[in-house]
């Protein structure tokens, strides 16, 4: 349920403020629109690999903006 609230929040922010910075890390930033686009690409890739909704998927990344996309 909490995950759905995060998805709803990001979807609304991407719709209303697509160019607003959502994440800033070490001088790099991504907007809500960029995160929405890139996370959709990751979701489509996982679905094409047979991963289903709420299936656990391991994440191994260094600290950075990419970690937000993976979550």
- Topology, number of strands: 2
Number of helices: 3
Low-confidence stretches: none
Largest sheet: 2 strands, antiparallel
What does the overall shape look like?
globular
* Proportion of strand residues: 5-15%
Name a few traits of the molecule.
13% strand; 2 strands; single chain; alpha+beta; 54% helix; globular
How would you describe what is shown here?
54% of the residues lie in helices and 13% in strands. It contains three helices and two strands, in the order H-E-E-H-H. It has a two-stranded antiparallel sheet with strand order 1-2. Strand 1 and strand 2 form a beta hairpin. Helix 1 packs across helix 2. It is globular, with a radius of gyration of 13 Å. It starts with a helix and ends with a helix. The model has no long low-confidence stretch (mean pLDDT 86).
């Amino acid at each position: 349920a909490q995950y759905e609230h995060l998805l709803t929040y990001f979807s609304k922010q991407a719709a209303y403020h697509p160019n607003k910075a959502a994440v800033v890390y070490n001088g790099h930033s991504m907007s809500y629109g960029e995160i929405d686009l890139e996370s959709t690409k990751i979701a489509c890739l996982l679905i094409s690999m047979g991963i289903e909704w709420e299936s656990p998927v391991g994440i191994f990344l260094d600290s950075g903006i990419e970690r937000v996309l993976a979550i």
